[in-house]
Amino acid sequence: MKILTRTLLAFAIAASLGACMNTDDNAGAKRNLATTLDDASITASVKSMLLADERTKGFDINVNTSQGLVTLRGGADSQAAKRAASLVAGSADGVRRVDNRLVVATDDSERRQDADTATASGDVREAMDESGDGIDDAWITSKVKAQLLADTSVAGMKIDVDTNANVVTLTGTTGTSTARLAAIRIAAATRGVLRVEADGLRVVR
User: Angle formed by the axes of helices 2-52 and 79-90, to 10°?
Assistant: First the structure.
């Protein structure tokens, strides 16, 4: 009788432990799923905020989040822009820390191109041919606008930028012929741009 009692007790303990382990496994899986969802939401939020901020929207920045740690990769034109990216990312809900690995270099430098092509979107663009086919028109427009704002010779000018099939159209006014030429040069040098139409960009003194 005692043997039977001990056997039944052992089975009960084992069943209880198994139930606890299953419960713990389920809870762990749920926690991992919640963390993954949270990280994905943080990544989406940070990307949106970087695209919306005037200081960072023109840059090719890849965002990755793991347990609230946001890692930024890509390129930036200046240390100020790099710091701005950290501030923007750090202000998103759920972010615990920001690891800013942005490379500060001029847009046409080899270091900058390497940094840009290291990002997910950069990998896609690197696979495209030099004609720029497939590079997003919206990305080109944002990039040109950001570069015009950052350039001292054209900053403050009333220049509108529109891109269609990789052809950039500049309209508006500049104060000098030099500024007009600088705007055209900046747009033409932007990655993915096939041609610049500037008939609508006039010099008004």
Answer: 140
Q: What is the pLDDT of residues 157-177, one digit of tens each?
A: 889 999 998 899 999 999 898
Better-predicted residue by pLDDT, 140 or 99: 99
Comparing CA positions, the residue from 48, 108, 98, 49 lying closest to residue 73 is 98
Long-range contact set of residues 148-156: C-beta below 8 Å, sequence gap at least 24: 148/183, 148/186, 148/187, 149/54, 149/58, 150/58, 150/77, 150/78, 151/182, 151/186, 153/178, 153/179, 153/182, 154/179, 154/182, 154/183, 154/186
Helices and strands, counts by H and E, the chain: 6, 7
Contact (CB, 8 A) for 174 and 203: yes
Helix or strand (DSSP H, E) at 167: strand 167-174
pLDDT tens-digit readout, 52-86: 888 888 787 888 899 899 999 888 889 999 999 99
d(CA 165, CA 141): 11
